[in-house]
Please model this.
Amino acid sequence: MSEHFLADSRPLEPNAPAGDLARDAEAALEELAQVSTEIGRVVFGQDRVVELALTALLAGGHALLVGAPGLAKTRLAGALAVVIGLDWGRVQFTPDLMPTDILGAEVLEEGTDGRRSFRFIKGPVFTGLLMADEINRASPRTQSALLQAMQEGQATIAGVSYALPRPFHVLATQNPIEQEGTYPLPEAQLDRFLLQIDVGFPDPESERRILVETTGLSEHAPQPVLAPGALARLQTLVRRIPVSEKVLGAIIELVRSARPEPDSPAITRDTVLWGPSPRAGQALMLATRARALLRGRLTPSLDDVAALARPALGHRMALSYASLAEGRSIAALIDELVGRLK
Model:
């Protein structure tokens, strides 16, 4: 890949023997099944959200969670961090939040010998998993500071670069209901997120379980499943998973058909203002591998492409004003393009 969108990007490793890959994948499947089970004891009724969040982490990327308040987005981030063996931190984004509140700052100190020197105090971004609550409430300057760290895997303070932990991931949230006093993320910054995950309301049975199990004297606390460093090993395994020419062709066809180009489908030319870049194809390629591993397969299928098309492409394209006025949606367009895949 010529351009990496991951803060933790590494070159693809040489193909491992099929037997080794199958053995490693089988061991990983057992670990990931335990991870999903443990998270399910804390976060109820959000199985698809949990799977997509795990997919983003296994693929080495960041995720944007979009949903109303009270849908366990912060709870999910905390549970994920504990279960997969990562340190984590949470920042509540507000309009007065400054870049140094996230990245850290240099302070002037005086030693015992009377000499003064600067010391760098790390900010909350120096962790394995950062929960960025309501990221669109901070100013564009602060958003850019975080998103630069997400892209480059480092923070630059006073001209000095400090490497972030590896792996480093961001789960950011947005409230789709209340937009007053917010700063919507520009398209180029949205592109930093591997997946956008829409968080909906739980089903009746799950909501009943929430009320029963979270309002008593005690709640289940998530327990670690993966040892520190295990996530990096699983991310390497994801990149070793082969992708068939059929699936690769479907990803390329889907991404290119979502752009308003002369050879694109008429539905795209008539409705899309701008479409996904090759980075969207990179995201979809890695995410399908991760989802296949989560579901116990050694190679992704067209079902993986279809299931991940909206989360991988939806935030990387926009409809024209005329199409929006007609009540059309990106989700419906992506579904139609997926239906055209051979």
Summary: The two ends are 25 Å apart (CA to CA).
